[in-house]
Design a protein that fits this description.
By secondary structure, this protein is mostly helical. It has one helix spanning about 1-120.
Length: about 120
């Protein structure tokens, strides 16, 4: 009878040991499964963030293009107005330039005449 009890105890110990090994294997399988889930989630999150970053970049580029277009339009308007103003006042500017040159030339002629007279006297 004690042999039966010892045999049953050994069977129970073996069963417990095999259950411990099985439990350890299951724990490891669960860890690996969780690691895979976490890695999959991380990759999905990265892809999502990349997508969001790409969308934001596109929006930024579109906004920049709109701003450039507005700036170019304003610059073109400014140039057009400046050209129109120049054409409008071109004659006046030329006349003012001629008067300035003539007044300088007149002063130069007058000074040259005085110098010439002074040299001959």
């Amino acid at each position: 009878m004690s042999k039966d009890i010892i045999g049953k105890v050994r069977e129970a110990e073996n069963l417990i040991d095999s259950m411990k090994v099985e439990l350890a294997d299951k724990k490891e399988a669960i860890r690996e499964n969780e690691k895979e889930k976490i890695e999959t989630y991380r990759k999905e999150l990265e892809q999502s963030l990349d997508g969001i970053a790409s969308e934001l970049e596109q929006e930024r580029n579109q906004e920049l293009a709109k701003v450039r277009e507005r700036v170019n339009h304003e610059v073109d308007n400014y140039r057009r107005h400046a050209q129109d103003d120049y054409q409008t006042h071109k004659g006046e500017l030329i006349q003012a330039g001629i008067k300035e040159v003539m007044s300088q030339y007149g002063n130069f002629s007058h000074e040259a005449g005085n110098n010439h007279r002074g040299a001959s006297e």
